[in-house]
Design brief:
Elements (H helix, E strand, L loop, with lengths): L2 E5 L5 E6 H6 L6 H5 L9 H7 L11 E6 L6 E6 L3 E5 L2 H7 L4 E7 L4 E4 L2 E6 L2 E5 L8 E4 L5 E5 L10 E6 L23 H11 L5
Parallel strand pairs: 5-12
Antiparallel strand pairs: 1-2, 3-4, 4-7, 5-6, 6-11, 8-9, 9-10, 10-11
The structure holds zinc ion.
Length: about 210
């Protein structure tokens, strides 16, 4: 079984992390890793981010939610008080993310606590985008000036399930053939044997 390295805030390889353990909790921070103490050796803030995943802030309706990039180097937490999110279809976001649209949650920029800081790509004269230079995950969008808010990508949250799309933005670039895909044939990853075999061969198990 191969080991996967968790990266610390400064980008250096930190404690070894079992690939299996990481992907068993693919959509939430892996408990196994925290239990085993395999945390960022530089700052140990990964554990704090995990602890904040589902913790409800006392004396408040806000829920502290956490998230981060695919490799775990960049981590954030932010208070969230409703389920609102939206899809951006603008051509800039399509280019920046390589997706036909991108799901965003709008938050107050000052509310975002970066336990491990992202990199910032100057995507245009008016905006910057946080991302991870190690794994390439797109983490959001922010105007350079004139707004207290920023967007975080919905899928970078550890628990993305609560967010609901409330509106579309960048309507001029909507790729309508991809808007309503309900009813198309569906296949789970664990029924695609070639994929399962590759995982088992590489890591000893399938992370589903
Ligand atoms: Zn990363």
């Amino acid at each position: 079984m191969k080991d996967r390295l968790l990266r610390s805030c400064d980008g250096k390889a930190a404690a070894p992390l079992l690939w299996e353990g990481f992907h068993r909790g693919r959509f939430e921070w892996p408990k196994k890793m925290v239990v085993n103490g395999a945390l960022c050796t530089s700052c140990l803030l990964v554990s704090k981010a995990y602890e904040g995943t589902s913790r409800r802030a006392e004396m408040s309706e806000k829920t502290e939610m956490s998230g981060g990039c695919a490799c775990g180097r960049v981590r954030f937490s932010v208070p969230v008080e409703d389920d609102d999110a939206y899809l951006c279809h603008c051509r800039m976001c399509q280019r920046a993310t390589g997706s036909v649209s991108i799901a965003f949650r709008n938050v107050k920029a000052a509310d975002v606590q970066w336990q491990c800081e992202p990199d910032w790509y100057e995507s245009s004269p008016i905006a910057v985008r946080p991302y991870c230079r190690e794994c390439g995950t797109s983490l959001g969008f922010k105007f350079r000036e004139g707004s207290e808010n920023m967007d975080l990508t919905v899928a970078s949250f550890d628990d993305k399930s609560r967010f609901k799309p409330r509106h579309h933005f960048g309507a001029e670039s909507i790729h309508r053939a991809w808007l309503n895909t309900e009813g198309l044939p569906e296949q789970r990853t664990d029924t695609y044997q070639k994929l399962v075999d590759k995982w088992v061969e590489a890591t000893g198990s399938f992370p589903g």
